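Researcher: I'd like a structural prediction for the single chain below. Treat it as a standalone chain; there are no partners to consider.
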Amino acid sequence: MLNRAARYFPILREMRQVIDLRNGCKVLEIGSGAIGVGEFWRHSFLGCDLTFAEKPRSPMRAVKCSGSLLPFADKSFDAVIASDVMEHVPPQARGQVVSEALRVSRKVVVIAYPSGSAAAAADRDLREQYLKSNKVPPGWLEEHMLHPFPSGELFSNVESGWTLKAVPNESLEFHRSMMKLEMNPALNLIFRGALLLMPNVVEKVLERQDSEPSYRKIFVLTRREE
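Model: Treating it as a single chain, here is the predicted structure.
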């Protein structure tokens, strides 16, 4: 729960600097899973994924499709999000996912993912912690073992009509500590309660942890005015 908050709070902050996120804003999330940004942004949005392991939750409207071949017209959305998706995509297909996200967005695309060898090492250590505790590593963590993490070079061929901003998300030290704490179900309940009772306080605490060296990078691509 806290891990998802640490991912989505800064994504929403970055989006608010570019567009008005109040009701009526058209948002697409690629690789949303069953919940996506709707856990922290209670407005209708479209979430797409290859499969949904559980029934998609409101306020998301779900569409099954590939991020590398989106069934939407050009500039169909005000904003497109892809949070912790690119590391699950085979390296040879990542550029196409970026191209599709840019194609269907009118204004802003926010793509966030764990980046760099230190982030990969942190996930390998986390997997070992699960195994030493006789716990089954979560599926997403096992998938993180399959491909090298993407870097900022993923955007080296982005067309000139976009500006690019990179933001650190979760210091490595904080990420390591948080993920180990989240292995404890009781602490997960405490995190959930804190987010329900005082989300603004939790967001401020998490924001202080967004420093280098970071586990994740958030890349904000904004379409230039025509």
